[in-house]
Amino acid sequence: MPIFIACHSTGCLVVVIRKESALSSVESQQRVLSGMRPTGKLHLGHYHGVLKNWVQLQHDYDCFFFVADWHALTTHYEDPHIIENSVWDMVIDWLAAGINPGRATLFIQSRVPEHAELHLLLSMMTPLGWLERVPTYKDQQEKLKEKDLATYGFLGYPLLQSADILMYRAGLVPVGADQVSHVELTREVARRFNHLYGKEPGFEQQAEAAIAKMGKKNAKLYRNLRRSYLEQGDAEALDTARALIKEQQNISLGDRERLFGYIEGGGKVILPEPQPLLTPASKMPGLDGQKMSKSYGNTIGLREAPASVDQKIRTMQTDPARVRLTDPGDPAKCPVWQLHEVYSDDSTKDYVQKGCRSAGIGCLDCKKPLIEAILAEQKPIHERAQHYENNPELVRSIIAEGCENARDAAKGTLDEVRKVMGLSYL
Ligand code: TRP
Ligand code: SF4
Known about the structure:
By secondary structure, the protein is mainly alpha-helical. It folds into 3 domains: about 5-195 and about 275-280 and about 400-420, HUPs (Rossmann fold); about 205-265, no CATH class; about 305-390, Tyrosyl-Transfer RNA Synthetase. Helix content is about 55%, strand content about 10%. The chain is built from 17 helices and 7 strands. The strands form 3 sheets. Strands 3-4-5 form a 3-stranded parallel β-sheet. The protein has a two-stranded antiparallel sheet with strand order 1-2. Helix 14 crosses helix 16. The radius of gyration is 27 Å and the shape is elongated. Residues about 1-20 have low confidence and may be disordered. It binds tryptophan and iron/sulfur cluster. Iron/sulfur cluster binds near residues 319, 322, 334, 337 and 363.
């Protein structure tokens, strides 16, 4: 059912289409989930690296995007106000970048406490070694030496991420290369979970009873084929066994499904295994030519004021060989050129290359089209952000609606998880 959210001051209408929450494993291929930690204002590196990709994905998939505030606490538990101050700004950044709340579900992790319950339940069956071996565990501890990350929460954080993903039965998880190991962990946890709990009570006995119904000869054949497949991975045996089941006339539909599942050894798939959707590494350079990153202090904010963008580009370092206007330069040695690579078309690049090498243009001439291109990119972002900043209640209702939608989807998964883990006795 579509939900209409009216924004009174502007008269604009946001339509949120409610999505079906329970997914089969085939439909899960169409669901995308990703999260972002609220630890400060977003910059153009986030825009080119992540947000533009999300904006594309929302056209083709059923997307869930969330503010990973609990994840932020795993590393920022000593200064939580950073998180508090970043949450709403980040949501506005997403909306300003073009995320459409009518297409994607936007929510805040801690407003869907089901994530904590699934994390806890998964923790029961996750071997400690799996978490200790996640590469980011030691890496981050080394990198963030000033923080004490020898905590329970930090060790468990990739499993919290697994809970985030498995909760929505997401098939695809857009992440950067550093997070692929977390999706791998999620796959292993899902596999182990399905192996432990995916069998309905008495599944094996029911499957055995169904085999008996095929008659002596066929039963023997089925057992041999199953053994060949399970022990030697014989794919031909799998096909033959399937064909054998199809031929059977006097078995029920339920038994047929059991016989199909039983050849492969398993039962039901409760938590489908997700795939990482690798976000191409962002080549977005910062003001000093290094990768744009808050920790290098070389960023341009996603919603940086135009005057400040102008100022930052004007004062950017250029090729040190160009002391005077008459000194020729080399774009390969200049961080300004790297930004041209992102923003400029061939003719501008040609103008820069020729003008720089021949000392035919000054560095400010070179920077001018760049400033214009960045401001042009930011213009619609500023406009959308302004709209949401003027209407904070609209932002709140988008998130309230998203959280409700997320909770509905989460409940479906958790009910099933509780049931198979023996917790549905109330
Ligand atoms: N751990 C991710 C990061 O640090 C954020 C995140 C949390 C996430 N849960 C997720 C990403 C689930 C993808 C899917 O960037
Ligand atoms: Fe850099 Fe452009 Fe100046 Fe050449 S002209 S040094 S590319 S800013």
